[in-house]
Amino acid sequence: MTSEITLFVNPTAGRGRGAGAAQPAADALRRAGFAVRTVVGNDAGDALVRAREAVHAGTGALIAVGGDGMSSLALQAVAGTDTPLGVVAVGTGNDFARATGLPVRQPAEAGRLVAEALKAGHERRIDLGRAGDRWFGSVLASGFDSRVNDRGNRMRWPSGKAKYDLAILAELAAFKPIPYRITLDDGEPLEVEATLVAVGNGPSYGGGMRICHGADMDDGLFDVTVVGECSRATLLRVFPRVYKGTHLSHPVVTTHRARSVRLEAPDVTGYADGEPLGPLPLTAGVEPRAVRLLVGG
């Protein structure tokens, strides 16, 4: 393994925490004897090109510094390669880091852990989801939650969490069940009226909403959560339970496990790791042991 590693930095993550986090992480790595190169792109596309160039050039590891968006971008560069991935999680949600037991908003500690993992060979081979040419580590979301994202992304005011709170209220006002056709592996398609369908490689999205509570990142299977047809009142009662994963016991919720999932529904966008994939239909499959994640010993 080369002693040169690459910090892949989003300076705007976590309302500017990304820029401040890069330095303590880099200091911890340099103290451990690593040469550190920093990659910051002009935009997401440019950053990914630069990250892939570093991987192809043989960097010893790619270390994502930022939030879930940056981790997702790094996955596009390292998935299916032998380049290890480290995560310095300083974003708002940090679902990927939490699901894998990595430090959150502790950049010096995360840098130290990455250095120790590289020296000792501590890594976890985790599965990833793949939809078309996009990889995802946590959850592919569709339905009510993706429509909230759609609406929030169109809104210019307000900013931050308040924007999505308003988007939730607006979508609740317009809420109605969505006709889905769900195909699990090679089984017969399921025709259901649903509020949302989530395909989980990992358990959570949205900063701790455990929509696929119990999903295991190295079992070769997706956990699929289907919230069926329900009233606005039921949705408002059930939704808060998602933070503890207790929503799975509600009668309107069903769960499945599968290696591949095809989702079909009208006027629904799929989001993977919080990033838009495009309109349904979409087919996602599990790619076992697709990335070498640097973890604590």
UniProtKB/TrEMBL annotation:
Domain of life: Bacteria
Domain DAGKc: 1-135
InterPro entries: ATP-NAD_kinase_N (IPR017438), Diacylglycerol/lipid_kinase (IPR005218), Diacylglycerol_kinase_cat_dom (IPR001206), Lipid_Phosphate_FormReg (IPR050187), NAD/diacylglycerol_kinase_sf (IPR016064), YegS/DAGK_C (IPR045540)
Key word Phosphoprotein present: no
EC number, UniProt record: 2.7.1.107
Top enzyme category: transferase
GO MF: ATP-dependent diacylglycerol kinase activity
Cofactor(s) the protein needs: Mg(2+)
Keywords, sorted A to Z: ATP-binding, Kinase, Lipid biosynthesis, Lipid metabolism, Magnesium, Metal-binding, Nucleotide-binding, Phospholipid biosynthesis, Phospholipid metabolism, Transferase
UniProt keyword annotation of Ribonucleoprotein present: no
NCBIfam families attached to this UniProt entry: PRK11914.1, YegS/Rv2252/BmrU family lipid kinase
Family statement: Belongs to the diacylglycerol/lipid kinase family.
Protein name: Diacylglycerol kinase
